[in-house]
Amino acid sequence: LLTDPRGSSAPLGAPQVQSSPLRCLTLQEKLLSHSSQLAVPEFQVSLVPQLARSICSQLQNFLRSKFPELPFGRLSLSGALLDGLEVLAADHVQLMLPLVLDAGLWSLISGEDTVVRNPQYWMIKRIDLGYFPRGCSPWDRFMVGRYLSSSVLNETLHKLLVASINWPAIGGLLGCAIHPVVASRELKLEVKHDQVDLSITLFPVVEMEDKVLLAVPPEGLVENLWLESFSRAEVSRLKELDAADSGARQLCLRILNGVCKRQPRLHKLGGSPLRHLVLHLSDTASDWAEESLADRFQQVLEELVASLEKGVLPCYFNPKINLFSGLLEEEIDEMGFVLYRAITEPEVLLK
């Protein structure tokens, strides 16, 4: 008795079901799928700013009682979470502490004209000491020579954070544990809450002559330098561009920030350097629609590799500033190696 070679379970003449091969996802589809996995948990989006603002308020009250003569401005929150560019976890926030200076007593000197020859740094010089002697400005106590010292100010605030504030009591009031980081050069607090671990960094900031200057001196002996920050301008420009053409620049940045956050060797590229690169590309690449996300993502990788090979990434707002100047040669080599491999297979960065 002959049997049907196709098997006896199906009647003769029945249509055969063909198993369709699995379709490979395009880079565009992988990027969009990956971006949906980067969202910060909702409870962190609401809890972290609330917790940080409560700590901010306690710190502001303490500063006013400890230094009533120093005209500090209102502390405010800053960082990727507030900018809508945070990914994966809301684990760090910045507190900006403004110093209110009398513009008639202080002036700015570019870092290009100092021994460091770095245009990203500035010195804040006390002027008219003949007419307004030392003591006329409440900030004179932080002078070294004739310059407002970011290092002396940071040292004073560091001692205050570490030794003068009753963090256990404040933490008990807010339902968390707060610990100042003693060994750090930065003014940093570590906060442990039942639902989140948070790092808070305090930055004294001076706004003068359309510049935003942070008390972040370079490592070394020069203690009077202030670092110019472009973060506010970067984020503002990106939002403005995306609003004008319904662009996906911020989406592209969130994906890239996620890559840098997960890849230890790429950590120093995350945040500001990526924002400057995307702004540069926005001047030459006109199509930033979501449908072109894969093309723009690939282009960012190629531009990053080219910039790392040269060791130069110009600041978007001041091309004299090289945003890679603070990187070690070994760091540049490691970053370049990771990204060069990813140019031909960008999907590896999404794993």
Automatic annotation (TrEMBL):
<dbReference type="GO" id="GO:0005741">
    <property type="term" value="C:mitochondrial outer membrane"/>
</dbReference>
<dbReference type="Pfam" id="PF21297">
    <property type="entry name" value="MID51-like_C"/>
</dbReference>
<dbReference type="InterPro" id="IPR046906">
    <property type="entry name" value="Mab-21_HhH/H2TH-like"/>
</dbReference>
<keyword id="KW-1133">Transmembrane helix</keyword>
<dbReference type="InterPro" id="IPR045909">
    <property type="entry name" value="MID49/MID51"/>
</dbReference>
<feature type="domain" description="Mitochondrial dynamics protein MID51-like C-terminal">
    <location>
        <begin position="45"/>
        <end position="234"/>
    </location>
</feature>
<protein>
    <submittedName>
        <fullName>MID49 protein</fullName>
    </submittedName>
</protein>
<keyword id="KW-1000">Mitochondrion outer membrane</keyword>
<dbReference type="GO" id="GO:0090141">
    <property type="term" value="P:positive regulation of mitochondrial fission"/>
</dbReference>
<dbReference type="Pfam" id="PF20266">
    <property type="entry name" value="Mab-21_C"/>
</dbReference>
<keyword id="KW-0472">Membrane</keyword>
<dbReference type="InterPro" id="IPR024810">
    <property type="entry name" value="MAB21L/cGLR"/>
</dbReference>
<keyword id="KW-0496">Mitochondrion</keyword>
<feature type="domain" description="Mab-21-like HhH/H2TH-like">
    <location>
        <begin position="249"/>
        <end position="335"/>
    </location>
</feature>
<dbReference type="GO" id="GO:0007005">
    <property type="term" value="P:mitochondrion organization"/>
</dbReference>
<keyword id="KW-0812">Transmembrane</keyword>
<dbReference type="InterPro" id="IPR049097">
    <property type="entry name" value="MID51-like_C"/>
</dbReference>
